[in-house]
Amino acid sequence: MDSPRLCICFLFILNFVVSLTTPQPEPRSNRCSDTGNYTTNSTYARNLNALLSSIPASSDLISDGFFNSSIGQNPNQVYAIGLCRGDLAVASCRSCLNDSVQAIIQACPNQKEAGRWHDLCMLRFSNRNILGSMDNSSVYVAWNIGNATNGGDELGNERFNSLRGYLLFNLRDQAAAGSLRKYAADVANYTNILRFYATEQCTPDISELDCKSCLNSAMKDVTTDCNGRLGCSSIKPSCVLRYETYQFFQTAADASAPTPLVAPTPPMPQSPPPIPTNTPGMHDVSHSCLNYSTTVIRIKCYGMVVITNA
Ligand SMILES: *[C@@H]1O[C@H](CO)[C@@H](O)[C@H](O)[C@H]1NC(C)=O
Ligand SMILES: *[C@@H]1O[C@H](CO)[C@@H](O)[C@H](O)[C@H]1NC(C)=O
Ligand SMILES: *[C@@H]1O[C@H](CO)[C@@H](O)[C@H](O)[C@H]1NC(C)=O
Ligand SMILES: *[C@@H]1O[C@H](CO)[C@@H](O)[C@H](O)[C@H]1NC(C)=O
Ligand SMILES: *[C@@H]1O[C@H](CO)[C@@H](O)[C@H](O)[C@H]1NC(C)=O
Ligand SMILES: *[C@@H]1O[C@H](CO)[C@@H](O)[C@H](O)[C@H]1NC(C)=O
Ligand SMILES: *[C@@H]1O[C@H](CO)[C@@H](O)[C@H](O)[C@H]1NC(C)=O
Ligand SMILES: *[C@@H]1O[C@H](CO)[C@@H](O)[C@H](O)[C@H]1NC(C)=O
């Protein structure tokens, strides 16, 4: 029995909006950087094609869900980075990156530099050396339209933001300290029935310090844009952060019948790669405020739960 929490709940009857996991369009965003064009059949086009088509089958994806490589000679050298979400099995990782390779070429034809961000993987290429360099510019920030508290309940809102901050700070440090995989995921209880689920991840080619710095920028987006929001994502070239009040990532414990996901080569990353399932996508494309399917649940701590449609 957690009496302080119960006491707060009695004094301030909090209203929550809980988003339910209805499948939504897969989140994705393309960024075609107009920094230069290549021509069809040029050396750059051949290098780019060779590099991108090597990504899905690359053995680099086995150990850490990460690809970073370069091909060709200046001025036709191409650099590429591919990264899968830390809980993704290698087969799903390959398939996500394969889809991204096809999609990015269609979305950004003849662009020397472009990127694609999807909930499960990201892909970037450029004619400048992007490997190992931290980029904390914003691709997008998206949030759940539901608020943690309705009716200006400041105490509930503050408590929500402060628990969220605590969780996100811890995850930042865990993710940044990772070596092969800079990924961390965790859950925190807000009330008996409302929980925070959060993930943070950096591309593993950047340093611990740069990873922290990138995730600091992402946390700043959360503070600025997602005050009291029930879910929020900040997506950047070098790092991604997301939290929700429902489980959107897989943990090892979710795997009912664990099977080896990873070739038995390097040491396991900090948390064992779990079995993936279809995670509900939640964002539309290229809007900063994205719609979720939500149901309002008004919670009174003595157990009365009224459900109404939002
Ligand atoms: C690249 O091509 C697009 C259209 O094909 C054009 O709008 C753009 O200005 C070009 N960019 C450069 C840097 O030449
Ligand atoms: C590219 O090469 C193919 C085959 O060599 C040729 O058919 C096509 O016309 C060329 N395209 C351009 C834009 O030069
Ligand atoms: C990648 O996608 C193409 C079609 O888009 C398909 O033919 C190919 O088999 C896929 N490769 C992998 C490794 O999934
Ligand atoms: C959530 O809060 C924001 C700002 O505090 C407000 O603009 C918005 O209308 C609220 N949304 C809902 C669904 O209550
Ligand atoms: C969070 O809540 C769940 C379910 O009520 C419980 O099993 C778990 O132990 C709680 N975790 C913490 C850290 O309190
Ligand atoms: C790719 O990243 C790894 C770290 O994950 C690093 O050791 C390696 O040097 C990088 N490769 C290139 C080409 O930068
Ligand atoms: C990126 O990080 C630098 C250094 O930490 C910081 O000065 C800058 O404001 C950050 N940019 C964004 C968009 O957060
Ligand atoms: C969100 O939903 C509202 C009303 O249902 C609609 O008007 C708006 O266009 C939607 N926004 C997005 C980004 O889909």
Automatic annotation (TrEMBL):
Sorted keywords for this record are: Repeat, Signal
Domain Gnk2-homologous: start-end pairs: 26-130, 142-248
Spans traversing the lipid bilayer: none
What Gene3D superfamilies is this protein classified in? Gnk2 domain, C-X8-C-X2-C motif
The protein's matches in InterPro entries, at most eight in alphabetical order, are given as: GNK2, GNK2_sf
Q: Which Pfam families match?
A: Stress-antifung
Q: Out of the domains of life, which is the source?
A: Eukaryota
The keyword Flavoprotein belongs to this UniProt entry's keyword annotation: no
- Point out the signal peptide segment: 1-23
The protein's matches in PROSITE patterns, at most eight in alphabetical order, are given as:
GNK2 (PS51473)
What this protein is called in its record is Gnk2-homologous domain-containing protein
Per the UniProt record, the lineage of the source organism begins with: Eukaryota, Viridiplantae, Streptophyta, Embryophyta, Tracheophyta
